[in-house]
Amino acid sequence: MKTKYVCQLCGYEYNPRLGDIDNDIEAGTDFEDISSDWTCPLCGAGKDDFECVEVDDDDDKDYE
After folding, report:
1. What is the dihedral of CA 24, 1, 47, 44, to 10 degrees?
2. For the segment 21-37, what is each residue's pLDDT rounded down to a tens digit?
3. Alpha-carbon 35 to chain mean position
4. How many angstroms separate the most distant Cα atoms in the chain?
5. Consecutive H or E run containing 7
């Protein structure tokens, strides 16, 4: 199982495998390793507004 983190306010998905290149978060960066002042790139929500979601390898094409 892989994990991704979903913003509970807007639905943005942070995928650790992809990172957040537009905000200088390199691919492969675990969510826990992102600075505490990082915010959702879509709505500005803080890390506390994200929920960890397990993803089946077969269900998430971003992991292929």
Report:
1. 60
2. 999 999 999 999 999 99
3. 13
4. 33
5. strand 2-7
